[in-house]
Amino acid sequence: MSTYDAIIVGAGFGGMGAAIQLNRLGYDNLLILERESDLGGTWHVNHYPGLAVDIPSATYSYSFEPNPGWSRLFAPGRELKRYAEHVADKYRLRRYMRFGTEVTGAVWDADRAQWTVSRRDGDPVTAKYLLTATGFLSQPRKPDIDGIDTFAGKVIHTTDWDDGYDLSGKRVAVIGTGATAVQLIPELAKVAAEMTVYQRTPIWVSPKPDLAVPPALRRAFAAVPLTQRIARWAGSAVLELMMVTGVLHYKQLPAANRLGERWCRAHLRRQIRDPELRRKLTPSYSFGCKRPTFSNDYYPTFTRDHVHLETTPIARIDATGIVTSDGGRRDIDVLVLATGFDLWEANFPAIEIIGRDGRDLGKWWRENRFQAYEGVTVPRFPNFISLNSPYSYSGLSYFTTIETQMRHMDRLFTAMRARGATEFEVTQHANDEFLGRMREKIGDSIFALGQCSAANSYYFNPHGEATLLRPSSTANAHREAGRFPLEDYSFAGKG
Ligand code: NAP
Fold this sequence. Notes:
This protein has helices spanning 13-24, 42-45, 77-90, 179-189, 215-223, 225-248, 254-271, 275-281, 298-301, 344-347, 361-367, 398-418, 428-442, 446-449, 474-483, and strands at 3-9, 30-33, 97-98, 103-109, 114-119, 125-132, 154-157, 171-175, 194-198, 205-206, 293-294, 307-310, 314-317, 321-324, 329-331, 334-337, 352-354, 384-386, 423-426, 489-492. By secondary structure, the protein is α/β, with parallel strands linked by helices.
């Protein structure tokens, strides 16, 4: 069995960023294992009508690989998929990728100082380093509703959109009102004969300042990359301001959060005149407890005669329709599940990972706290980089997180090799210190001080702690990734 330098699980933007970083460090014997049939992660799996990036596209790309061709300020999903393909081709990453390969687990072999990675169909493979880039929003959640499997019509989860299925003239039910549903519902309303949206928790919706990027500006971005860097910087600065002032420093700046809430309330008031409908669409939790979204056509969709908002809880589903707890029923042809993802149970971690002394990562996280040093490494898991860790998500663009982690890898692997070593492991002390610092900082945030219990937000783990987002500025995360004390790691092995 040949041993790779590194195995990366996941061929989305996180996994590709990790591979680019490993190449820069001189590692070329890589294997990228991907469960899906192609690269791109989220942007390969999701192709439902209305899919678009929900932050300005100039910020949603690698800083070292700008894309001057975005057609809109909020680019449609297919452009993100094309961008992923471009990156894979330009950085010659396809040669490492194996698709349709589901990884089931990984075990640290202390004697050989390597990871053994098992696959559902195929022999185990081994590598010196293991990197998991399995995403946060990658395990679809099917709701546990009584009778759902007895429904005889068409069922579509948004992550498994059937492009060939024609919804025109159909009676459609949509369950869920998260960011995905907000994009999808206006599109479905254009073709459905009747549409009922089953809402459990309303979402804060902000106006979407979307516009087409004029061809002249695209040409300018291509000819003078500095112009696009300025656009990226401006977009990032706005996102950072929203995140740091509105969410993370709620204690110091409660007015910033209230401003965000007022902005969304005014948007709802402008678009919905019926007070009863407006009341139903108004969240009862603080702005920022759950990721808010942007849309100009979500609210107006509910004013159309053939669109209904149902807020009475669903009691059960039968062969032909949905019954609510007040006894009301609607017959439907199509059931659309915009029910999001199982983040914590199925994804932390997405595969079984057994480290030194038999430590099981998922079990350890659940029996202790969800934690990872700088959102990257975990004690007793040598030579392991966990890209989708507790406290890893920094800022609002996922690319901020990816590039911060690439920077961490750069410093870590460079230091290891400078010592003539081949193994790294974060110390328990460094991990504990980082966790303590994050827990203290989260105390200033909306998550600790706001009214979040009604939000049903995936930012919170099953213990009720908000351990997904790193509660510091992206500047702080970026700085620490390039300057963390090297004593925070122990190094071993001979190069
Ligand atoms: P989500 O935010 O988790 O929303 C899932 C929705 O389904 C919620 O309204 C939830 O209600 C509802 N739901 C789940 N189970 C239910 C049940 N048993 N009965 C009734 N309702 C149920 O998932 P999402 O909308 O897919 O969005 C996830 C994240 O993906 C977003 O926050 C965003 O970060 C990202 N996203 C990004 C883009 C983009 O960039 N283009 C687009 C879409 C999504 P509760 O709230 O009551 O649980």
